[in-house]
Amino acid sequence: MNTLEIKRMLVSEKYENECFIIDNIPLHEYLIKWYQKNGWDEISQPIAPAHDLAVTWTGLFDNDGDARFMRWLLKKDKLNLPILSCPDDMDFSCIVIVAEIEKTDEFVYWKRIGTVNHSIERLEERKEHGIVFVDSYSDDDWIKYRDAAFMRVDSYEWKEWTSTHWSEELFRRHINYTYKCYQDDRNIDWIYTCNWCFDRKQYDSLVSECAPKWCMGNDE
Fold first, then answer.
1. 2: helix, strand or coil
2. Fewest CB within 10 angstroms: 24, 88, 146, 199, which?
């Protein structure tokens, strides 16, 4: 059985950062070791320095749509889950480190760690998976958004709606498009098979203490 914590620690002579700690070892130290073991020498940009990466579970997101997406992901039982991100772009568009996880009643497994390859993602496809993606509509959505459902992407009315409801638009793009991209292994550059196993109760307790935040003003 492995242990998992999130702690703020000194990662350089003058710099502190919040870090995942697995079996009393910071995750960035594992990343460095794995790169070396794979014969990749030092971690190169844009991954380096690994200790700078931000914990997505507790990160200060720029927009509530991103924070809602992270909270939505944390509730799932089997997925490639974002765990680390570029600290300057907490919006899932830059560096994203994922763990392949699976939960059972007693345990939570982190099977592999990898980086998201964003090359397959397309802005036009992302737009089509926002408010106009009616395939994902619930009955409540049809009541609340029926006037927006059939807008043409890039039309004046669509631009007006997305500018005033950006958090909702962003959240929908994430759950309809970003999520599916992350779950396709062809879009993940796997670094290492770690096969960590955590106690489910302790894991859930740690997750419940984390609250991915939204640090700017409400744009709705």
1. coil
2. 24
Beta pairing class for 96-103 and 107-116: antiparallel
pLDDT one-digit tens code per residue, 71-104: 999 999 999 999 999 887 788 988 899 999 999 9
Q: Yes or no: say if 122 and 106 are a contact pair by the CB < 8 Å rule.
A: no
**8-state DSSP, 178:** I
Directed axis angle between helix 64-74 and helix 166-173, to 10°? 40
Q: Give the residue among 79, 81, 66, 82 at the shortest CA–CA distance from 212.
A: 66
Q: Are 83 and 57 in contact (CB under 8 A)?
A: yes
Does the predicted model carry a pTM greater than 0.85? yes
Ranges of each domain in the chain: 4-121+185-214, 123-169
